[in-house]
Specification:
2 domains, alpha+beta, 12 helices, 4-stranded antiparallel β-sheet, about 450 residues, FAD/NAD(P)-binding domain
Length: about 450
């Protein structure tokens, strides 16, 4: 059954040079970089705050800004600027020489800091605003249709940055994209009080403080059927500045695509059910732990949905062998980290050739994915071309996890410190395209790189 929606006139809410759809840190950094260069920028976010998975999803870690051997800084830009701003408010802790975590954030403070960045740069913000559809005239993307408490309206712009995470703008434009056959499962995080003892030595991989009288990994495995808890992987970190509030990421919602409305609804409710189940397990088998549920996310932590088909597909070989690109706009050192759909646990692949399969409750399986090299790579790169979607709309660029990367490459590049850089690159590219009246694909990548450097990014 279908309903015919009658044509109607709608107001233009705002006209800008650059429109950013999606207000994660990736989207905010794109908007701020373009605005700082002089563009008139608008940003549209469906949640009540900026910050994406870090804020609305509660994931309070950013990974290291150094290479794999912690000798060379490879990331700066707005990631480092934001860390420094949070540090002034005692809202960030640093974990040095850690392959698992570089910074632990108070993500509530992050929300406010991102508000200030938006306001200082003069970006026009729209919160609680849902992207509905693209508006195309004569084969050209001219505006996006949005809806909020004011009703339905349009935002017109010359250039558009799709930072929606799921590639919503590109998908609704009909641009070519794919869903990985083994897309990584989503995780519902939670903030809990009464967890462990803040300041104790944490596990170098999971960060999980010991609970009193219970080994949670073993208990989850032993009592999984009693509480309906799927096997997965649990980790977390304390909230900076708190005495006992812990962000725990220990749920798994398998085989559900967050870019599908029904799947997303199921995932949100199932994720919350699993949070309660884990707490019920601790209440029954570790009753000396006085856990209290402090907060749940307003959006489940989605690792992977759509990938746009772009001018270049980043491969696992590119990442694991540290391939250098002439048009590189981002650097990263986080290991390839694949959360499996087809089996419990996850696999880490390191740039030095080591491979580790971790299944909580079982011994780690350590092997090698390749033999030794004379010199191991210590970081990898993301090329600008992986942000340029195929198709006729040359005023659209992507930023964030919908970039073009295969399953293996995506396992490494998907983390926030890497995706933040793609946002900065998209924002700079939007300004350069505007100032030169060019499409995104016509830009000189060398000029993008040099402009990023002038704005504080580390371009190698």
């Amino acid at each position: 059954m279908h309903i015919l929606e009658k044509a109607r006139e709608i107001p233009v809410f705002y006209e800008a040079d650059v429109c950013v759809l999606g207000g994660s840190c990736t989207g905010v950094f794109a908007a701020v970089r373009a605005a700082r260069l002089g563009a008139k920028v608008v940003i549209v976010e469906k949640q009540n705050a900026f910050g994406g998975v870090a804020a609305s999803g509660l994931v309070n870690v950013w990974h290291t800004i150094y290479d794999t051997v912690f000798q060379r800084q490879i990331i700066a830009g707005m990631t480092l600027e934001t860390v420094e701003r949070l540090r002034r408010r005692d809202a960030v802790d640093e974990e040095q020489r850690s392959h698992s975590v570089g910074y632990v954030l108070n993500t509530e403070e992050l929300k406010i800091e991102l508000d200030e960045l938006i306001n200082e740069a003069g970006v026009k913000p729209y919160l609680h605003t849902m992207f509905v559809a693209p508006h195309v005239e004569d084969g050209q993307l001219k505006a996006v249709i949005v809806e909020n408490k004011s009703g339905r309206g349009a935002i017109a712009a010359n250039y558009f940055i799709d930072a929606t995470g799921d590639g919503d703008l590109c998908a609704r434009l009909g641009l070519s994209h794919r869903l990985s056959s083994h897309f990584q499962p989503s995780t519902m995080c939670a903030k809990l009080s009464g967890w462990g003892a803040n300041g104790d030595i944490q596990d170098s991989v999971t960060g999980t403080d010991k609970l009193t009288g219970i080994d949670l990994h073993q208990a989850r495995l032993q009592y999984k059927d009693e509480f309906g808890i799927p096997e997965g992987f649990g980790w977390g970190r304390h909230v900076p500045g708190s005495s006992d509030t812990y962000m725990y990421a220990g749920t798994r919602v398998y085989h559900k695509n967050s870019a599908d409305g029904e799947d997303l609804t199921f995932s949100e409710m199932e994720g919350r059910r699993q949070v309660r189940a884990i707490m019920d397990l601790v209440r029954k088998y570790g009753p000396d732990n006085k856990l209290a549920l402090v907060s749940l996310p307003s959006y489940i932590g989605t690792r992977e949905t759509r990938h746009m088909n772009c001018a270049y597909r980043l491969t696992g070989e590119d990442v694991l062998y540290g391939k250098r690109f002439d048009d590189a706009i981002a650097n990263g050192s986080y290991r390839v980290d694949v959360h499996h759909q087809e089996k419990p646990g996850l696999t880490f692949k390191y740039l030095d050739g080591e491979q580790v399969y971790i299944r909580p409750g079982y011994p780690q399986e350590v092997s090698r994915w390749r033999g030794p090299l004379e010199q191991d790579p210590t970081f990898y790169q993301i090329p600008y071309r992986s942000l340029l979607p195929d198709g006729p709309f040359r005023n659209v660029i992507v930023a964030g996890r919908m970039l073009d990367a295969d399953e293996e490459a995506f396992g490494g590049v998907r983390v926030m410190v890497n995706m933040n850089q793609t946002g900065e690159a998209a924002g700079v590219a939007a300004y350069l395209a505007l100032s030169q009246s060019k499409s995104f694909g016509e830009l000189d990548s060398g000029q993008i790189r040099s402009t990023l450097t002038q704005g504080g990014s580390l371009i190698i």
